[in-house]
Amino acid sequence: MKRPREAALKTPSDEALSHYRARRNFALTPEPAGGNEAGNDVGTQALYVVQKHWASHLHYDFRIELGGVMKSWAVPKGPSLDPKDKRMAVQVEDHPIAYASFEGAIPPRQYGAGRVIVWDRGLWRPLGDAGQGLRDGNLKFELQGHKLHGKWVLVRMKGKGEKQVPWLLIKEKDSFARASADYRIVDDLPDSVHGLADSATVPSKVRASAASDAPAPTPQAAPLAALPARLAPALATLLAAPPRAPQAWRYEIKFDGYRLLARIDAAGIKLLTRNGHDWTGRLAPLHTALASMRLPPGWYDGEIVVPNEAGVPDFAALQRAFETERTGPIVYYLFDLPFFDGRDLRAVPLEVRRETLRETLKRASGTAHSEAVRFSESFDAGAESVLASACKLGLEGVIGKRFGSGYQSGRTSDWIKLKCGQRQEFVIGGYTDPQGSRVGFGALLLGIHGSHKQLDFAGHVGTGFSQRALRTLRKKLDGIGAASSPFNAAAEVEGRPHWVEPTLVAEVSFGEWTQGGRLRHAVFHGLRSDKPAAEVVREKAMHERAVSEKAVHAAAAAESPRSPAARAIKSVPALPPGLRITHPDRVIDASTGITKIELLRHYAAVGDLMMAHLKGRPVSLVRAPAGVGGELFFQKHLDIANLPGLPGLPGIRALDPTLWISHPPMLEVASKLGLLSAAQWNVVEFHTLNTGTASFEHPDRMVFDLDPGDTVAWPQVREAAQLVQAFLLQLGLTPFLKTSGGKGLHIVVPLRKVHDWDTVKGFSQAVVAHMAATIPQRFVARSGPRNRVGKIFIDYLRNGLGATTVCAWSARARPGLGVSVPVDWSELDALTAGDHWTVRTLHARLATGNDPWQGYARAARGLTAAMKALGYRTPGSQR
Fold first, then answer.
1. 3-class state of residue 305 by DSSP
2. Which of 345, 565, 577, 842 has its CA 20 to 30 A from that of 516?
3. Residue 452, phi-psi category: left (phi > 0), alpha (psi -120 to 50), beta (remainder)
4. Which stretches of 450-558 are assigned E, i.e. beta strand?
């Protein structure tokens, strides 16, 4: 801020800020310690700020620069422009002048924990002697800010010995006063003023002063501070779905490695884990690289990894590097800079800290060892596309960071993580004996800490181990053997396990949690030595609203409904108000605990995407009244006689009975409401015919369903899809791909409506027969479990009249509730299974939607040329 030259400058004494400093741990809170700033003396224009603070209760902090500090009052309801409103203002401890620009989150269990924004700021001028006004309890002044203007008064009330003196903040009558019935400024202008200096909503005379009012959010404007000896890192909160305000976030790769902080000062370099363990001696090559770069003093935050040949972080390789004490290949990706060159940057906006870090590393890039230290780039694209790309590359996921946020130690809602799959740490509590030719052990017994810090049994992991890992880990297990189980008394572990002391931590990916708290499809990735076993708990993905409430206290949810966050929450797809949902909490899949209401919300979310595949097509509905695993019912016709008491299915209609004269009227899902009413009626799957009602006698597509035998590995299924694609392209046809939601993949070929059902089915059978004859080690032309042992049956039977295929975006009535999803052929290598997406994980795919099938309609072809190329003749044709 530009200050009048005649102003007398005054630096506060330590005593003036003693109460402020005594209440805060500046190694944990990003608030400035202050005390080095020179401030204006009384009697001239100086800074004022109003900070909106979500602590135990939402309130507003009114602060004025006076005597080298910010005199401060807590105003529970915030200022009012109505002179009739006398707002309570409780005087609190003096704050440093640097606090006037503070925005950020004060960590949990710290004084004033919660989020702080600069709601308003500008200049204030006392009307009379400010010091005398404070002593008399009648301070009159004038404000010139972004939001508040005109004359005001602070009047001290007659207290009763309170520790914090009560005052009243009152707006004086002038041209800026407005009645509360007409205008409530805290509701109509709820957001931060940072970055609003050029806003058209700010009067021009205020914009002119604002340019000189607010210090630029630069490292040079950050408060001077000694480098703390310890620093707890910022941690991300696992989110179930991407935030709904994409412009507010920047995304980085979630590295598959160990978190590491570098503390650099004149005494040297220390490399510390997230829990403060000194790993400098274990990372000698990295220490040498950092020393050669001659980086300025500060705290540097990042992650260490070992890239594989493709450049993708390999957690197992990182673990081997430590086991063999060969840490030379380790790369240190830096992504934040909370302290730098004598200043505390934790209140500086994220993008400014990162740009400072980028430029610092760029200046050091000429050193011999700088390849070992790299900058972690961010991406401005939406979360869905960044996450999809990360998953395709085999990465763990992405980290999202709120644009403009400060650096907060501990778990925060300003940093979030989105994962490609479920993965977390588990405590090893025992192991089983190996079977057959296997060495080391059979499986590890895993646990997590639950209530009362007991170790709850979470299941087994028996895959993901190399022969070397089996032997190495067995030696570690032999050294920590225990006589009794470390799991709680209620744990039921089958067989004759060997118990160990619960000190080792394993990194494990898995498919789902069962309703009983056990892992499905667990895969071992390595041991973690950077996290104590005592801290391992079940990591639960949260929704955006829940994250905000827990991370910055429940009061944050009370933010004005006009705010972007509140508007985003209201944008969640809603169920129709007239739709009656019975037993919404009934579990329909015991393996995951998915309930009926979750399934309905799935169909509400995918409704628009799914209708593009349903509209105008006859459907079959698969009902699961007893849930997944119970008896299933196919409903192809609206046979009310066999469904007593059916209240009707809004959005589902019977088709013209003349379409298929020999059968009862078929069904069509005519609207999104039909999806929801069917799901309320216990429908899980939606299947469609290969034709529309406009040309029922002529199919408009051909489907090949890759149905693998039980012993077929997933890479073989992917290879099979590529082989079928290549052959169809050779025939001049354009195949499209989707996951089945079950075990395999579906290849769909759009057709012109010129061939009858027998022709299309016969040709599809000829294609399958050719593939099976050409590559018999991969394919079979006959169905049945015995024929599919170790091979894949390409199911062509779905091309006959009356046969159906599960619709894109439909859930499957199988454990896990996988979803059939359209994908691009370029995404095939990244798919992990036919149920790559489930009802619970599909959110990351919604933004991509039907884009992979762009051009589907234009790709329709007749089969005449393809039949000629294959040498196929229809039955009865002349030879």
1. strand
2. 842
3. left
4. 455-461, 498-499, 505-510, 512-513, 519-520, 523-528
Question: C-alpha angle with apex 50: 49 to 51, nearest 5 degrees?
Answer: 115
- Report how far residue 590's alpha carbon sits from residue 101's, in angstroms, rounded to the nearest whole number: 52
Sign of CA dihedral 726, 727, 730, 733: negative
Computed over its alpha carbons, how large is the radius of gyration of the chain?
33
3-state secondary structure 246-302: HHHEEEEEECCCEEEEEEEECCEEEEEECCCCECCHHHHHHHHHHHHHCCCCEEEEE
Q: Which distant-in-sequence residues (6+ apart) come within 8 Å of 601 by Cβ?
A: 573, 575
Q: Mean pLDDT across the stretch 258-286?
A: 93
**Could you tell me what percent of the chain has a pLDDT over 70?**
86
- Quote the tokens at residue 522: 């667990």
Mean pLDDT of 171-185: 86
Tell me which residue of 541, 555, 559 sits closest to 420, measured CA to CA: 541
Rounded CA-CA distance 10/12 in Å is: 6
What confidence tens digit (pLDDT) does each residue in 182-226 have?
Answer: 788 988 788 888 643 333 233 333 333 333 343 335 677 778 888
CA-based nearest residue to 69, from 107, 21, 103 = 21
In whole numbers, what is the pLDDT of the chain averaged over residues?
83
| Best mean pLDDT range from 115-129, 382-396, 747-761 | 747-761
From CA 702, how far away is CA 748, in angstroms rounded? 6
Rounded CA separation 773/782 (Å): 12
Q: Environment class of residue 729 by beta-carbon count within 10 Å: exposed (0-12), middle (13-18) or buried (19+)?
A: exposed
How far is it, in rounded angstroms, from Cα 867 to Cα 759?
10
Residues in CB range of 633: below 8 A, 6 or more apart:
622, 623, 624, 625
254 flagged as catalytic: yes
621, two tokens: 């509905």
Catalytic residue among 147, 171, 254, 738: 254
Give the integer Cα–Cα distance in Å for 118 and 147.
Answer: 11
Angle between helices 596-614 and 672-680 (to 10 degrees): 140
Distance CA 551, CA 740 (A): 38
CA dihedral 828, 834, 837, 838 (to 10 degrees): 180
Q: What share of the chain is helix, strand, coil (3-state, %, to 5)?
A: 25, 30, 45
Rounded Cα distance, 809 and 740, in Å:
10
Question: DSSP assignment, residue 852?
Answer: G
At 250, the amino acid letter reads: R
Helix (H) or strand (E) holding 132: helix 130-136
pLDDT digits (tens, 9 = 90+) for 507-539: 998 877 887 788 888 889 889 887 888 888 888
Contacts of 113 (CB under 8 A, 6+ apart): 55, 106, 107, 553
Helix or strand or coil: residue 523? strand
Strand-pair partners of 252: 378, 399
Q: Which residues of 384-422 are buried (b: 16+ CB within 10 A; e: fewer)?
A: bebbbbbbbebbbbbbbbbbbbbbbbbbbbbbbbbbbeb
**pLDDT by residue (tens digit) across 276-326?**
889 999 999 999 999 999 999 999 999 999 988 878 888 888 888 888 888
The two three-digit tokens of residue 47, written as one number: 């800074």
Distance of CA 495 to the CA centre of its chain: 39
Measured between alpha carbons, how far is 173 from 83 in angstroms, rounded to an integer? 6
What is the amino acid identity at position 344?
D
Residue found by looking up tokens 């050091």 in the block: 364
Dist CA 356 CA 220 (whole Å): 11
Phi, psi of 399 (to 5 degrees): -110, 130
Predicted TM-score (pTM) of this structure:
0.42
Six-digit token string for 723: 């082989």
**CA-CA distance, 192 to 402, in Å (whole number)?**
14
> What type of residue sits at position 477?
L
Q: Which residues of 248-257 are buried (b: 16+ CB within 10 A; e: fewer)?
A: bbbbbbbbbb
Give the SS3 label for residue 712: coil
